[in-house]
C-alpha cells in the first residue's frame, strides 16, 4: 500500500467530489439560462406567431398585422454584412497568419483588431452614420447598414479564421511547398480548404451577431416604419431587433403590443437559428467529403 | 558506371538567431546513390537536409553562410527561383502527411500546381508513380477515396509517390520510417533500393541498421559538425574516428 492514510484519502475524495459538483452546476446554469430565455419568449410570444404575422406588413400604427418587412430587412442586412465581411476578414487573417513573420507590426494589428471587438456597438452606429451614410453618401440604406455591421463582425471573422488557419498543420504547408507550389497555391489549394470549417464557424458567429444588433443599424439602415419591401440596396428597411426596440419604447400602444414584441423576438431567434443551421449543415457536409 | 557529382555542399554554416546549428559542412553527394545522414538528436542532420531544398527559408531569424551547388549551380544564389528549385528536389517528411484529399488528388497535386492540365497524362502519371511506389495494387480500387483512410505505411508510400510525380532529381527523406512499424519500414527500404536507379536520395535516419541497409554513403554528424563520411561499408566496419565508432556501436548517442 501507499503511505496515504485513510484520512488523507478521504479528504482528497471529498475535494474531488466538491469540484466535480461545482463544474457540473456551472455547466447546468448555462443550459438553464438558455432554456429560461427560450421558455420566457415562447410562453409570451407564441400567440403572436400566425401566418399573417409572418407574411404581412404591420398595420394600424404597428399594433396589428405582421412583420414581414422586418424579417426581409434583417435577412438582407445580416447576409449583406457577411458577404462584405468574409472576404475582407479572411484575407486579413491570411495576411496575419500566413504572410508575416511574428513581430511588432503584427502585434499592433492584432491589438487593433481586438480593440475593434471591444468597441460598443453604438459607436459603430455613429461611425456608420458619419462615414457610410454621410461621407460616402450611401444614405440610410441596406448598403450603409450592411457595411456598418460588416465592420462590427470583422473581428469575429478574423479571429475564427486565424484559429482555423492555425489548426492546419505546418506539415501540409511544407509538403505543398516541397512539391514546387507557390505560397499562394499552397494557401488556396491546401490551407484554405483545411481551414474552411473554422472560417464557416466564424461566418456563423458573425451572422448571428449581425442579425441581432440594434445600435449599429439605428442610424444607418433601419426605418421606424415602412410597409413596403426594399426594392434595392439603397432603400432603408425595417429590421427585427430595431422593431422590437421601437414597439417596446416608442410605440403607440406599448402594453397592448407586448405579445407582438415577444413574437418578433421569437422570430429573430428562429431566424438566427435557421441561418446557423444552414451553415452548420454545409460545414458538416464539407467535413464529410474529406 | 562513373560517379557524377549531384550536390556539393561547401563550407556551410547555419544559425538560428545566435545559435550555430551547422558548422563548416562540406560534403559531396553523388547521383544515383543513397546518402545517409546519421547522428544523435540535435546534431543538425535534419537542418542540413532542410537547407537542401531551402525549406529553412520558412523560419524567421535564420542565417546561412556558404554554398550548396546543385548541378554546379548555387541554390542560394539570389536569382534562383525557390519554387522551381523545390520541384527538382522532392521531400518526404518524418510523419506521413498526405493532404486531406483523395489518393488521386494527392499524387496529382504537384502536377496541378505546376500547370499540367492534360487529364489523360495526369491519370497515367498517377498510375505510374503509384506503381513505382509499390502502392498501386493496394489502392487502385479506391483511388478517389480519402488518403487519410490509408494505413501509416501506405500514407508514407503515397507521400513518396506524391514527391515522385513531379519528376524531381533528388529525393530528401527526413526519417521517413520513424512513425512506421517494421513491416511498413521494410517496404519503404525496398522502395528506396529501387528508386536510386532514378533518383539521388538523401535520407536522415536515427536507425543505424537502416542506414547500413539502404545507403551507399554515410555521413556522421555530431553537434552541428560533420565528423566523418565514407562508404557505408567502411563507416560501419572500419570507422576512422573513435567518436564515430562509439556512436555506431551504441556506446553514446
State the name of the first-level CATH class of chain B: Alpha Beta
**Could you state the CATH homologous superfamily of the largest domain in chain A?**
MetI-like
| N- and C-termini, Cα separation of chain B | 36 Å
Radius of gyration over C-alpha positions of chain A, nearest whole angstrom: 24 Å
Number of beta strands of chain A: 2
Order of helices and strands of chain B: EEEHEEHEHHHHEHEHEEHH
Whole-angstrom Rg of chain B: 18 Å
The most extensive contact between chains is:
A-B, 21 and 28 residues
Q: Please tell me what the overall shape of chain B is.
A: globular
- Counted up, domains of chain B total 1
At CATH level 2, the architecture of chain B is 3-Layer(aba) Sandwich
Order of helices and strands of chain A: HHEEHHHHHHHHH
Total individual domains of chain A: 2
Tally of individual helices of chain B? 10
Which stretches of chain B are low in confidence, meaning pLDDT under 50 for 5 or more residues running? Answer: none
Mean pLDDT of chain B: 90
Beta-strand residue percentage of chain A: under 5%
Instruction: Report the helical percentage of chain B.
Output: 25-40%
Descriptors for this entry?
heterodimer; A: mainly alpha; MetI-like fold; 2 domains; 11 helices; 1% strand; B: 253 residues; Rossmann fold; 6-stranded mixed β-sheet; 4-stranded antiparallel β-sheet; 10 helices; 10 strands; globular
Describe this protein's structure:
- The complex is a heterodimer of chains A (290) and B (253).
- With 290 residues, chain A is an all-alpha fold.
- Chain A folds into two domains: 2-47; 52-289, MetI-like (MetI-like fold, Orthogonal Bundle), CATH 1.10.3720.
- Chain A is 74% helix and 1% strand.
- Chain A contains eleven helices and two strands.
- Chain A has a two-stranded antiparallel ribbon.
- In chain A, helix 4 (104-118) crosses helix 6.
- Chain B is an alpha/beta fold.
- Chain B has a single domain (5-248), classed as P-loop containing nucleotide triphosphate hydrolases (Rossmann fold, 3-Layer(aba) Sandwich), CATH 3.40.50.300.
- Chain B is built from ten helices and ten strands.
- Chain B has helices at residues 45-52, 82-88, 103-113, 119-132, 136-139, 152-164, 182-195, 208-214, 232-237, 242-248, and strands at residues 5-16, 19-30, 34-38, 62-70, 73-74, 89-92, 170-174, 200-204, 217-222, 225-231.
- Chain B has a six-stranded mixed sheet with strand order 6-7-8-3-9-10, with helices on both faces. A four-stranded antiparallel sheet of chain B has the order 2-1-4-5, covered by helices on one side.
- The longest helix of chain B has 14 residues, at 119-132.
- The two termini of chain B are 36 Å apart.
- The model of chain B has no long low-confidence stretch (mean pLDDT 90).
- Classes of the chains: A mainly alpha (290), B alpha/beta (253).
- The interface between A and B is medium-sized, with 21 and 28 residues.
